[in-house]
Specification:
The protein is α/β, with parallel strands linked by helices. It has 22 helices and 24 strands. The strands form four sheets. Strands 2, 3, 4, 5, 6, 7, 8, 9 and 10 form a nine-stranded mixed sheet that branches. Strands 14-15-13-16-17-12-18 form a seven-stranded parallel sheet, with helices on both faces. The chain has a six-stranded parallel sheet with strand order 19-24-23-20-22-21, sandwiched between helices. Bound molecules: adenosine-5'-diphosphate (ADP) and magnesium ion.
Length: about 675
Amino acid sequence: MAKLTDPVTMLKGVGPAKAKQLAQLNIHTLQDLICHFPRGYEDRTKLVTISQLEVDVPACFRAMVMNTPRTAHIRKGLDITRVQVADHTARLNLTFFNQKFTTEQLEYGKEYVFYGAVSGDYGGYSMTSPSFERLDSPPVTTRRILPVYPLTAGLSNATMLKTIRQALSICDPPEEILPPEIRQQFGILPADRAYFAIHEPSSMEEAEMAKKRLIFEEFFIFSAGLSLMRAARAKISAVPYANCDLTPFLRALPFSLTGAQNRAIREIQKDLTRGTPMNRLVQGDVGSGKTMVAAAAAYLAVSNRQQAALMAPTEILAEQHHASLSRLFAPLGIQVLLLTGSMTPKEKRLAREAIAAGDAQLVIGTHALLTDATQFRQLGLVIADEQHRFGVAQRAALAEKGSNPHLLVMSATPIPRTLALLLYGDLEVSIIDELPPGREPVDTFLVGENLRARINAFIRKQAAEGHQCYVVCPAVEESEELNIKAAETWAETLQKTVFPDLRIALLHGQMKGSEKEAVMAAFAAGEADVLVATTVIEVGVDVPNATLMVIEDADRFGLSQLHQLRGRVGRGKAKSFCILTSRNKNPQTLARLKALCATGDGFKIAEEDLALRGPGDFFGSRQSGLPAFRVASLSCDLATLKQAQEASSAWINAHGADDTKEANALRSRIAELFRRGQLTMN
Ligand code: ADP
Ligand code: MG
């Protein structure tokens, strides 16, 4: 028997070239291979006759080869092979493109099973490039439920399938970790059957059962892991803060806080005085004023002679927080310091010295704050802004920095309640459900290409009134590189041919930190009329004079992401607008975008997003901050999620502290998986 940790190269047929292709998919060991789950299935179990084939509906049928395949060389790079097959009901012509070698396997007079779809044309029916197997060979691509795997260039589904089959035949699947009573209660397949059935289901029902089991397991581990994390943090003690007076801070503010802001601050104050580290999430829609809540928390820490660190997901945002919080805290005699990756080595060294000496009381930065090079004298509070960009792993890393500091995370991503439990299971939650007074909703429109002239006129009108616009370029799926190209090209087009008289600026993620800062600062200072950008401006950016946001090819973005982007306008006194353009005609897509036009409520939008796209997409989307679940991201139903949560919290309550062999084994498995696989972030 082989071991799960053995490399894939120990398999027959897996040489260096294939291993390299597999590595592209993050598959290195037999375990990785066995855990490479199909993204879907094709039911190829049913055999029909040729006369039963329906146009454009793929199906399996058994037929005899009626002549010797003939290949014609049409031109360089194009070979066409033709062959005729028949069963007792009809004859059918098959055509293959550039498959000379495969088709030479078709032998005159022999029977095969084919899988493909017929097309009907004037000359009768024919079929193009069906897959086929000899009737007397074991079923691999026909006569079965065919798993469809995520693949990479050069690696075919059939190869993947055979490789996984081989792995399953020589080693045991990952061991069972779910207690039998839980499996029984929720009707969950045992591990060995599930790992086998997910790849080789005997029916679609069995495939579903296997999937459910694996999703359940993933959620169970994740949510139990969060609970354990929370329990561990609750045992740690922290120096309780004195309940100091916030009045000087409140007096320094240019406005009075909203009821919701005050409530969140009171909750934080309570946490800080309790004697265990705070673990709190402040969730509030874009523009609800979370920064001031963070500032109040920092003020409390500093008043207790502790340092506070504020982490932002982008340098632009860190820079902006530094500017506004310095202004706020300077009159109060509090030292605010910036530390980002793009500062010069000397600047960084000086900043780190001030942090180590304790002179810097509030330190603002990006992830660079997390590196070991930064040592705090007395770090008492860590704040992570726009938490959805960091995810659970970084959150855990943060909590370990210094001597168990208090932790405050802030997020504008309105995760629906069911998913919030999963994502934030280790946190207490404060919700800011109130916007500062005087905010008008951002009028949002969905328009097609036919209104391009009117969009341009509208941009011009805003500029003429002294306002500014954002133009966000289409997200080219998963490719920051191409996104940049789109933004660059579009900025150039706008400047050269549409608005030669306006000042167009460009901002994207691959610009150097200092460049980005310069562009953002210039835009904030009103030195550009239009800022063409990629989604780098998605979070936090605050330029109140910007009143128009145009989002090109809005259908390429998720609803919650669009909502975040829209949050960049409507921050000042003037009426603001958001224009979504789309060339997509799909009614469902348009319905999704119209939902955004109809409401400005982030929670409603998130619920809508969840209902329309399902949790699979929610988990899959980079912005959610959810871990990259292996199975759950394929597709899953909320019911399974709820069950797994219920099961894990019941188990933690009943056995979380047990000192039995089973409980210890399960706990350490959870801790291990939690550390290893489950925390890989999107
Ligand atoms: P977010 O919750 O999206 O982080 P911010 O903290 O950036 O929101 O606040 C958005 C804007 O609202 C900022 O310009 C901020 O100064 C302003 N603001 C925050 N709180 C209030 C308040 N209570 N009254 C008026 N304006 C406020
Ligand atoms: Mg913010």
